Amino acid sequence: MIPTITAFKNAPDRGRGLARDMRVRWALEEVEQPYQVRLLTFSEMKQPAHLALQPFGQIPTYEEGDLALFESGAIILHIAQRHAGLLPQDQNARARAMTWMFTAAGTIEPVIVERETAQYSESDKDWFAQRQPLVDERVRAHLTILSRHLGNADWLDGDFSAADLVMVSALLRLKSSGILEEFPNLSPYTTRAASRPAYQRAFAAQLAVFKGAQAC
Ligand code: GTB
Q1: Dihedrals φ, ψ of 8, to 5°?
Q2: Which of 29, 57, 73, 213 could form a disulfide with 198 if both were Cys (CB 3.0 to 4.6 A apart)?
C-alpha cells in the first residue's frame, strides 16, 4: 500500500528542506517505499479534516490504509520498523539506534529549535542581544557532547540508521548559523548524510513543490 504524507503547499523555508516532511520523505526514500504527498495550505492545516489526523494542525502526517500517524519521529520509527534498512537487525544495536533517535528529537533538536525561534520571533526585543549568547551556548554544550560521541566515526552507532537521519535533519537547521563548523566532525557528518542518494531524492521532491508553487 502506498502511504500518503502531508507537506506544506507553500513551504516557509522556500524549499531548503527544513520542514519536517523532508525527514519523512528521506526515510521513505532510504527504504525505497514510494509515497504520495497531499499538499496543504496553512489554513487547510487548521481545518477539522487535518486536525483529525494531526491535533496540533501541523505537517507531516502519514496515512497507510487504516493507519494514520503524526509526529515525524513516530512516523520515521514506524517506517524503520516496517522496512529493512533504517534499523539494525541485532536487538541491542536496534535499541541503541532508537536511543539516538530519541536523543536527536528530544535532546538535540529542542535547543536548536529554541535558537531558531528566538531568531525569528524575539529579535526585535530589547533583551534579545543579552539572551542570544545564552541560547547559543546551550546549543554548543549539546553539540560538544554529540561531537565527542561521534568522534571519528561516520555514523552514530555502526551503520547509517534512522538515528543519523533524525540527528542530521536536526543539525541541518543550524546550517546558516556557523555553529556547526565549530565542530570539525559535525559539518562533515551532515554533508556525508546529505550526500546519500535517498536524501538527494527527497530534497529534490520537496524543492519541486516549492518551485511549482512559485510558478503558479
Ligand atoms: N514535533 C512535530 C513533528 O516532528 O512532526 C513538529 C511538527 C512541526 O513543527 N511542523 C511544522 C508545522 O506544521 C512544520 S516543520 N508548522 C505549522 C504550524 O504549526 O502552524 C517546522 C518548520 C517550519 C518552518 C521552517 N522554516 O521556515 O525554515 C522550518 C521548520
Answers
A1: -65, 135
A2: 29
